[in-house]
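EI: anyone free to look at a 75-residue chain?
SC: sure, send it
EI:
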Amino acid sequence: MTSAQPEPISIRDDSIRLGQLLKLAGLAEDGFHAKELIENGMVKVNGEIESRRGKQLHVGDVVTLAGESVVVAAE
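SC: here you go
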């Protein structure tokens, strides 16, 4: 998978928190792992490093970790 073609991750609501998305997408094993990844500056949202686990993401937002990208999609 390349960052040019992010994998869509469908959500039911209007938004999802960054930590939850990382778990849903399989990029983090659990909440603690997601917290560590974010705190260590390894997660980007729309090309910018994001430091807030509770950051609200919306349809169209792209999250990148270790060269793997996912895009928030409507269910």
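EI: The CA atoms of residues 18 and 31 lie 10 Å apart.
SC: 👍
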